[in-house]
Amino acid sequence: MSTPTPPARTIAVIRERGGEHTRRAAASAVTVGDGAFGRYGTAIEHFTGIVTREVLCDPVRDSAGLVGQLLALCERSPEIAVLVLAHCAPERAPAMRMIADVPVVPVSDVVAVGLAAATVTALNRSGRAPAHSRVVIAGASAMPALCPLLIGVGVGDITSWNLEDATTCSLMSIAAHADVVINLLARAPGLSSVCAAHSDPVVLTPEPLDPLSVLPGLTRALVEMPATDHTVYRDRYDEVLLACVFALVMAAPPGRPRPPGPSGALAARIADAATRALHPTPPTIPRP
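The structure assignment produced for this chain is given below.
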């Protein structure tokens, strides 16, 4: 009797029914993938050749509700190898690394990868070493993955600022002497005044960044990872994202702030970097 062929491994792109972005607080909203739900699945499948499904889940009040729905989905569809969360509230992302041994990729974390890479590129273009640079994150609570990535790329001075900090310290005062300000706020009080008064800082926002510069390659690496190694992704999550940051920096053409856009070549570069981060080669000890 022949053994049944297991179904091909697939990627599932998840979105809450009704669109979580319509319910975000306007003052601290991060524009991540609005209106691009179909585009994620289409592009991932195009650049990886891996069947990609798009799944709507019901709106939930907390992480536990979303985890429950994703667990049920993975039980019904064991062929799913990777879950991509098209919209994920910042406070939920850390709880979403693994669902039933299936790796999870929040798109907001992928945007953080793009912002960290853009920061390194901006500093390099201005001749500033990251270790001697100051970066301010305005609205830092909207993207918890960003600060660890900036630490990972070697930024020496990082200040996280949120709207509730305005009563004790204005954004204008802390941004005035920054090399880069990463603006995650829909409205950044005083930031335009700082930019008008100083040649610095460079201001970066999520809007120009395309998550599809990273998603195809990262998901491909995770699909190709042996199922027995899935806990490696959870344990090395920060290292994997950091490897994608450096791959993006290296892929940017001279004089350009970022790679020109999603491509098969960029997906291959990101996949290679993520795979090496998942399975780092142990150092060779020379024989005496």
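Interim note for the steering committee: The chain has two domains: 10-110+209-278, 127-204. The radius of gyration is 20 Å.
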